[in-house]
Write a structure and sequence with these properties.
Elements lengths: L6 E9 L8 E9 L2 E7 H7 L5 E4 L5 E4 L1 E6 L10 H4 L4 H17 L2 E6 L6 H10 L7 E4 L20 H15 L3 E5 L17 H13 L3 E8 H10 L3 E8 L9 H10 L2 E3 L2 H5 L1 H12 L5 H28 L20 H10 L4 H15 L17 E4 L13 E6 L2 E4 L10
The structure holds zinc ion.
The site of zinc ion (ZN) has 5 residues, from loops.
């Protein structure tokens, strides 16, 4: 990325810096070598930057913010509604191409950092290597490689099966050796045929072996936990981040457990509730559009009603969890790639966080500063501050007032390079 080496001043009508401060009017960010060199009132930055510095003016209506972070993606899956078995019938080569397309979609939606939460064989690692060589555009990427799962467990198709503490330790070592930035482990069943999402798939001792070994290599851990039983195990094992946290019981229902929520809070575990995934939000949005346009069939209206009732149950559990756990350790995650969860829509998760009680400003912070802490990159991304990577997104409205503004992306910069820009002379559509 030659251009990242050059100096650039980005001027916007408003700056939302991700630290919790109110939007600052008429601000500018001075970028050098892909990093934020200075940030402040536009007249001052304009004066300080050398005259030859390239300038991009995003206009008075633009709200410049830290690039968004999605802590839960499956790049190799198309998110086109096909069942796992069909998606996994693709070759590894096709999965890499699918991943390249998905990286671009996320980047264009203002998502500049992701965690790749599990792909087959070397697909995740290959995508990261392609990004590193600048072969393909995409968000900066932390890669888990393959998720660790028990024999026949959720995502066993990815080929990192391990049973018992010894095999799990070996899996962690193998993944770290291949380049894993963090470790993902499947603590309960999931959507994979033959697995049971309402039951734990690993014991506390097994999960602890993963945590102990990962931490030995300074790697964080994330556990897929749909069953309440798996949530208990993950907390006891010291997992760093819990995915889904649905409180699913063997009867198939969600049963909120306040004592468990208290333990989660005391443990300081990060929680990624993946709300759009459970709520099947892309489908809800699509059906609502059809209803509002008067195009929905009776069947579709019934489907919408069923989905809305199901979503309400999940969101109520989430609200009760927030009453105990607070908002400071909650991060959004799309689970993109799975089912019909297409890439490019972290906005859906932020919308749902607002639905359960976050202010729009808090939702944006959870996708930026809070997420940067949860994934272990707090000094690198998540806020617009001197020294951070110049990963930025600009919205056409104020996202701290109306979260819908997050869907209106007008510019994206990654490591100081404009990947989407309102000025065609300055930008490059990746
Ligand atoms: Zn997932």
């Amino acid at each position: 990325m030659d251009e990242a080496g050059s100096s650039l001043v980005v001027h916007a009508g408003h700056l939302v810096d991700g630290t919790g401060r109110a939007p600052q009017p008429d601000h500018a960010v001075w970028i050098q070598d892909g990093r934020i060199h200075a940030v402040g009132a536009a007249p001052q930055i304009e004066q300080d930057a050398p005259p030859a510095t390239r300038r991009i003016d995003l206009g008075d209506d633009a709200y410049l913010a830290p690039g968004l972070i999605d802590g839960h993606t499956h790049l190799s899956l198309a998110g086109d509604g096909r069942p796992y078995a069909e998606m996994f019938s693709e070759s590894d080569e096709m999965m890499v191409l699918t991943g390249a397309l998905n990286l671009r979609r996320h980047l264009l939606a203002g998502i500049t950092t992701i965690r790749e939460h599990g792909a087959r064989n070397r697909v995740g690692f290959t995508l990261k290597e392609g990004l590193g060589r600048d072969f393909i555009p995409g968000p900066r990427m932390l890669v888990s490689g393959r998720p660790i799962t028990c024999t026949g467990g959720h995502f066993h198709m990815c080929n990192e099966t391990a049973d018992g503490e010894e095999e799990i330790r070996r899996s962690v070592r193998r993944l770290v050796n291949e380049g894993a930035d963090y470790i993902k482990i499947m603590a309960s069943g999931g959507g994979t045929v033959g697995t049971d999402p309402t039951r734990a798939s690993y014991s506390v001792a097994e999960l602890h072996a993963a945590v102990h070994e990962a931490h030995h290599f300074h790697r964080l851990t994330a556990a897929h936990c749909r069953a309440r039983e798996s949530m208990v195990n993950a907390v006891e094992a010291g997992i760093d981040l819990m995915e889904h946290a649905e409180f699913l019981e063997p009867d198939g229902d969600l049963h909120f457990d306040p004592d468990l929520a208290k333990k989660m809070t005391e443990a300081g575990i990060w929680i990624s509730p993946t709300l759009q995934a459970w709520c099947r939000w892309p489908r809800v949005v699509c059906l609502r559009h059809r209803r509002d346009a008067g195009d929905a069939t009776d069947e579709e209206l019934l489907e919408l009603e069923t989905l809305e009732v199901r979503a309400r149950g999940r969101l109520n559990v989430m609200r009760r969890m927030l009453d105990i756990c607070g908002k400071e350790r909650i991060v959004p995650g799309t689970d993109s790639g799975v089912n019909d969860l297409a890439f490019g829509h972290l906005d859906y998760d932020l919308e749902l966080l607002v639905e359960v009680g976050f202010t729009p400003a808090e939702a944006l912070e959870s996708a930026t500063r809070v997420s940067s802490e949860a994934i272990g990159l707090p000094a690198e991304v998540g806020t617009v501050e001197v020294g951070r990577a110049a990963d930025l997104v600009a919205f056409g409205g104020d996202p701290t007032r109306d979260i819908a503004a997050v869907s209106d992306v007008v510019a994206v910069f990654q490591a100081g390079f404009p990947v989407v820009s309102p000025d065609p002379d300055h930008g490059r559509q990746p």
